[in-house]
Amino acid sequence: MVGFKVNKQALGHVTIRKIEKGQITFITLNRPEKLNAMTCEMMEELYTALGMVEEDKETRVVILSGEGKNFCAGADLAANALGVGGREWNSKLLENQRLFSRCIEKVASIPHPVIAAIHGACAGGGMSLALAADIRVAAKNMRMSAAFLNIGLSGCELGTSFYLPRLVGLSHASEILMTGATVTADRALQINLVNYVTENTDEMDIKAVSIAKRMLKASPLGLKQTKLQLRAASESTSLKATIHAEDVGQVLCLNDEETSKIVQQKCEPFIAKLRAKI
């Protein structure tokens, strides 16, 4: 990461780096010699890191990234191999699966916005992590694929069947998940799979941080409520339920002393600016 002063903390194969007075936190998969491929141990560390950030009073935005030349090549099949057969094997397999899937759920459920900064290989579980983020910034060399299908498993795993159709539509999602095709950064931008594409990883980091800095202009509670309502709405089929949740969220913001002060400070200049345009 170029040009940023950081405070760094390591959790095995996951690192936590804080910038902007601790308000922006990088959570980085740090196993570059293995393309940041996921092991059960690494997923436990990632879940711990996400939990730490969730409880951290300074953090307001999270940037999820990968060390070295790749974001994440998916599961480390050699490290996670269990053999085949029997009830005990199935139980252990499900236990390991939950180590992975709960990280995907955690990315979605923490109150802070999560920006995925994606470069190089982004496959299988790495793709799932990126899809679970709120915003995706990709470097030009990003290559994304649902690697599950390419090794004989279902293309739908770790939330891909939930997130991908919502991002790109059913037709594009079907092509990606049913063919195991590799999606380039430019193609991902074209089908709304990523928000931005940059020329290199340095620019990717800079872009991710610039988005995070724009988010910091919002009140802490207002930003959290926005993520909460967007997530709730994307999982809801009822407009009435969605609007009710939004109403409650706004009331919570207006009743919060810190947020109320920020609203008062920003409201008058904002209205004056609007009037000037009329």
From TrEMBL:
Pfam families listed in its UniProt record: ECH_1 (PF00378)
Gene3D superfamilies, per the entry: 2-enoyl-CoA Hydratase, Chain A, domain 1
Stored InterPro entries: ClpP/crotonase-like_dom_sf, Ech1-like, Enoyl-CoA_hyd/isom_CS, Enoyl-CoA_hydra/iso
Molecular functions per Gene Ontology: isomerase activity
Family according to the record: Belongs to the enoyl-CoA hydratase/isomerase family.
Protein name from the UniProt record: Enoyl-CoA hydratase
